[in-house]
Amino acid sequence: MSTSSTSKITQAMILAAGKGTRLRPLTLETPKPLVEVGGQPLIVWHIKALHAAGITDITINASWLADKLMDTLGDGSQYGVSLHWSVEEDEPLETAGGIFQALQAGQLRDEPFILVNSDIWTTYDFRQLKDYTLSADQQAHLLLIDNPEHNDSGDFAVNNGLASEHAIGDADKYTFAGISVISPRLMDGLVSGQPAALGPLLRQAMIKFQITAEVITDNWIDVGTPERLTQVNEFIDSKGADNHLGA
Question: Would 4 be classed as within a structural domain?
């Protein structure tokens, strides 16, 4: 963790614009973030956990069934947070494009923020990122997990705290957990209204040694298929979720 600044992170963005095609037919009429997990919508786990960590300024991008998502969550006051909606009217702008639109509209302030994929469920404690500070040349800090069965080759390696696309020697590769601290500068050069993925931007910055990472061991699942939706519900039924800030 850098100690170049004493400022704390005060904002987050939850990526929620995807169509959830792998969860169809469930997501034909229900936005994937509203799919119920353990008795409440999946995205509500994140909202409550961020609130518990002291992050109450949250931006959500929406596209597929955006009206249903916004009608259900509203302005966030029912959860003690302020929700800012960045609606992608026609087609989703992908991860980086969605972030860029929110930054341009001022829904995200021009300062580092916690980024969370809406379609994961994890017991990770967001309070661990509240005081994280990016150094002057650092573009992002990624959380990685041991590779699940559906991504056994991994995404990124870690060497002395730096993330890289390729492992060095016998080093392991890990899976991106869909949780990170992002500098708005990572989006420099994007074009308004044009889709752009976050992955290529991260890989470009990794070449310049501007991305750090750490491996976490918390319970984590990508709720991307009916099978994994069943898996997370069975986990909560059997193990409980008392250690989850969003419970």
Answer: no
